[in-house]
Design brief:
- InterPro entries: AA_transpt_TM.
- It is a multi-pass membrane protein.
- Keywords: Cytoplasmic vesicle, Membrane, Neurotransmitter transport, Transmembrane, Transmembrane helix, Transport.
- This protein has one domain: Amino acid/polyamine transporter I (Up-down Bundle).
- Strand 2 and strand 3 form a beta hairpin.
- The protein is mostly helical.
Length: 509
């Protein structure tokens, strides 16, 4: 009996070691619920990508080489060193740091956000291979997230592990040079963020036309109406006013996912197991794979998120359980959703709901969630563009967007309004949600989540990596490049074909 009790206790210890500390011990008072973002302390949720933040680091927490002291002789390829050093550090004081639960919430919100509604459609064209991709891509993205953060650290002359880089851009500059490295990653990030904004607009149109298919307003007109509510984003200087609303909208979205799953399970006696394809349709599966890759892209803000954690040694554990949870839920959601509607599965699964009142309530909630999610990538993209072109001479060719009183200039607000309108025009031009999502995942998703993290890791840590790690990362680069190329090709082919077909509910292109 004592032997069984010992084995039970030992097993529980092993299990709890992979769970957040906050499950088992009381945390300090938590005042920040999102990753830091933007100018102010309360700007949250997405990486601000501001390189000038490095100039405001506290000197107490950095050594003479400019790296944040982490102490000890921790292994670069093991867990990320804990942040036990004194001082406020790069990302603000202790009071502004976040727990493992909060970091996991940010990652979960990124990889299980709005676009999960298209995963059953990916299963329609990917079948069991699409389900496998949801699990396999989760594993790869978890690995690349860890090695990307490992690239932030280097040992100093005393053997201490120090944080010498603070962003994806800084890693690229170290590997590819200041001239091209930062520009390549910045361009990819801007494309990824703006395409995310465009997808939100397209999603609003799809949800509204799905709710009111017989109404006088067509899909593109619904997009224009949605964009009217997004124009105030041009005046945002921080995300304080929308972060909490976005938080509660995310909670509502999780409830909607549960409700949709519940409805699907009520239809379990009618599930079409025989309809799940086993073969790969070469013209459609690459698009499905691009959708899967896009749904897991979170690498662009992981360096900032890790820097914000109170205990950075828990970063690997946080990525493990957040990606494991995502793989399980996404795989189940996609599979059950497809089993319920089979060949009738639409690009946005909520449009398949049978009861009109139920569908309208669910879709309107998702539209509100999309509208409040739009400012996050929009604000980050605007910041990137401002840093690249509008910092003032001699840093950039164009003057600063901010006046001496730190307020946006009139012409800067006008440019931001044009950026919102640009996302609308792109959405109207490409109103095919799933195809556009697959194209983005095949283009920027594979580069940001597959190719570049592995290349940068091998470039910076080559002498420390065992042969099997190098082999694995070469494989990830190869599969990322291959899937990216064929995904872009077939996504473009599908877009060309889509322009010769009527849009949903009889609208002509």
């Amino acid at each position: 009996m004592s032997w069984y009790l010992y084995r039970f206790v030992d097993t529980m210890k092993s299990v709890t070691s992979y769970l957040p500390d906050s499950c088992w011990k009381e945390e300090d008072q938590e005042t920040v619920h999102f990753a830091k973002h933007g100018h102010g302390r309360d700007d949250t949720e997405l990486h601000s990508f501001r390189e000038e933040d490095s100039d405001r680091r506290s000197s107490d927490s950095f050594d003479e080489k400019g790296g944040e002291r982490q102490g000890g002789n921790s292994k670069l390829n093991g867990t990320v060193p804990s942040t036990d050093a004194g001082g406020e550090g790069e990302f603000g004081g202790r009071e502004s740091q976040i727990s493992e639960w909060q970091a996991g919430w940010n990652v979960t919100n990124a990889i299980q956000g709005m676009f999960i509604v298209s995963l059953p459609y990916a299963c329609l064209h990917g079948g069991y291979w699409g389900i496998f991709a949801l699990v396999f891509v989760a594993y790869i993205c978890c690995h690349t997230g860890k090695i990307l953060v490992a690239c932030l650290y280097e040992p100093n002359e005393r053997g201490d592990i120090v944080r010498v880089r603070d962003s994806y851009v800084a890693i690229a500059q170290s590997c590819l040079g200041d001239k091209w490295g930062g520009k390549m990653v910045n361009v990819a990030q801007i494309i990824e963020l703006l395409m995310t904004c465009i997808l939100y607009v397209v999603l609003c149109g799809d949800l509204m036309i799905g709710s009111f298919p017989d109404g006088p307003i067509d899909q593109r007109s619904w997009m224009m109406i949605a964009t009217m509510f997004l124009l105030p984003c041009a005046f945002l200087q921080n995300l304080r006013s929308v972060s909490w609303l976005s938080f509660w909208c995310t909670v509502a979205h999780i409830l909607i996912n549960i409700i949709v799953m519940g409805y699907c399970f009520t239809r379990a006696p009618y599930w079409a197991f025989s309809k799940v394809p086993l073969r790969i349709e070469i013209h459609y599966f690459p698009i499905s794979l691009g959708i899967v890759v896009f749904s897991y892209t979170s690498q662009i803000f992981l360096p900032t998120l890790e820097g914000n954690m109170r205990d950075r040694s828990r970063f690997h554990c946080m990525l493990n359980w957040s990606h494991l949870a995502a793989a399980i839920f996404k795989g189940l959601f996609a599979y059950v959703g497809f089993l319920t509607w089979a060949e009738q599965t639409q690009e946005v699964i909520t449009n398949n709901l049978p009861t009109k009142a139920f569908k309208v309530i669910v879709n309107l909630t998702l539209v509100i969630k999309a509208l409040f999610s739009y400012p996050l990538p929009y604000y980050a993209a605007a910041n990137l563009i401002e840093i690249a072109f509008f910092q003032g001479k001699p840093t950039t060719k164009f003057p600063s967007c901010f006046a001496t009183d730190k307020e946006l200039r009139v012409w800067a607000v006008a440019l931001r309004v044009l950026l919102v309108i640009f996302t609308l025009l792109m959405a109207i031009s490409i109103p095919h949600f799933a195809i556009l999502m697959g194209l983005i995942g095949s283009f920027t998703g594979t580069m940001l989540s597959f190719v570049w993290p592995c290349y940068f890791h091998m470039k910076l840590k080559w002498n420390e990596l065992p042969w099997y790690t190098i082999s694995w990362e070469v494989f990830i680069i190869s599969i990322g490049a291959f899937c990216g190329v064929i995904g872009i090709y077939y996504s473009f082919s599908a877009l060309v074909q889509a322009y010769h077909l009527p849009l949903p509910h009889g609208e002509t292109p």
